[in-house]
Request: fold
Amino acid sequence: MKPLSDTLSAPDTDEAAANPVVGIDQTKGDFQYKVAYEFDAGTGLSEKTVRYISSVKKEAPWILEFRLNALKKFLSMPMPTHWATKDLENINFDKIRYYLASGQKPKRTWDEVPADIKRTFERLGIPEQERKFLAGVEAQFDSEAAYSNIKEIVAKQGVIFANSTEALREHPEIFRKFFGKVIPTGDNKFSALNSAVFSGGSFIYVPKGVKVAQPLQAYFRINAENFGQFERTLIICDEGAEVVYMEGCTAPKFSTSTLHSAVVELVALKGAKIQYITVQNWANNVFNLVTKRGVAHEEAEIKWIDCNIGSRLTMKYPGVVLKGRKARGEVLSIALANDGQHQDTGAKMIHAADETTSNIIAKSISVGQGRSTYRGVVHIPKHLKGCKNNTECDALLINSNSRTDTYPAISVRGDRHAVQHEASVSKVSADQIFYMQSRGLTEGQAMSLSVNGFINDLARQFPMEYSVELKRLIDLEMEGSVG
Reply:
């Protein structure tokens, strides 16, 4: 599987001998095809934009009302000022294109996908992934899913896997019950923006007791310049059900800014398990501002595995509301910030029932003048008993100009809980690099080995195909980053 890069470019023989990672295409996502869009909302955000999106989708009146209320909230809410202010000020909402689509209905076979879009996903390896190990795949191109399919054996189990546009139309009784309940429209300015102009994203419903044996995957591709992608994902696991969902994200590099502002809501009912895996490799002109949260009911488990590479600015803090007794929540995150990038990531764990358990492990790497920031919230109120939390934040600095910050906010009341917090900041040892170079490695290879050793324990948590991909991406980020 090659979720984010095609590893079979043809290197020069001498160059390959000197650099064993030269055969990996570092700019795999950095390509663009001209596409004839059938639907285009134009630039700028207004009530007219929102009505256009709802109209071309032929949505029910309640959805339009939901969108217009969200637009009012977005326009009335100030831009966040407590962090990342300087970067956020560079977003010009009047120049963004909020809806672009070549068609409204996703194709069910690759042969039906328009040729220009098909080239994109074939280059990214999507058909191969589907054949090898996926129970279902959805490929979104700009605003809408271009391809969506689920294996017959999984569909026969009653599993629903569709994009949000289809789900709202075909399964409104399930979708509407949970939609916007985990993350309210007014949660933050960017959740309000998403609620006003959302399009695409995944909807998954797993019936009681069904354990989906293979992962479901979505791939989100931004192709257009000055574009904003606003997918909306909702996953519901009924009692005793289990599912693994994976997503990959790429975009080409443009001189202008691109906005990605998604909302992801997870609902794990009694005894259910949801594992949500993200590996993103955005170009460094992308503002990646995402709200992700799950609700875990009694004895349920929600696990976020998050890898953030690329983007100009990422602000993402996956969270779990531990609503039921003995519910479990976990966030494992890796963030790599290179020159001109700020990875502002973290986790939120809200304990709302007795004997709930949360675990946060975050590792960040700052390269060149890159900046990584961890922000975490853990809240355990006084009236609960038997709650547990473990938080570990480790940062690695590659250069003297790189920066890392850690802002843990752990609020524990009462004396019947077990909480521990550990944090460390380290710098790659010059002696260690020198030793590896003396054994024949280049400086970049030695640095890659150090970084991969730093994240090794977390990388093992990824599916094998993704952990291999993660190592390759880190190898590429380290090449030429020293000095």
